[in-house]
Amino acid sequence: MMFEKIVLDYLKAGTNSDNDPEKNQQILVANLFGFIGYSITLLMGITAILRQDYLLAIVLLVASSLFFSSRLILGNKSLKNPYRFSGTMVTVSLMLLMIYLVYAGGVQGTGPLWIYIVPPVALFFGGMRKGSRNLGIFVLLISMILFYPNDKLLLATYSLEFKSRLLYSFLTVSLLFAFYEYSRQKSYRLSQEISRKFENQARLDLLSNLLNRRGMTEVLETEFSRSKRHHTDLSIIMCDIDHFKLINDQYGHQVGDDVIVQIGRIFNNELRQHDNVARWGGEEYLVLLPETNIQQAYSIAEKLRLKIEKQDFNQQQQGFTVTVSMGVYQITAEDSINHAITLADNGLYQAKNSGRNRTVIYTEQSSC
Question: Which one of 45, 164, 168, 230 is most buried, by most CB atoms within 10 A?
Answer without folding.
Answer: 45
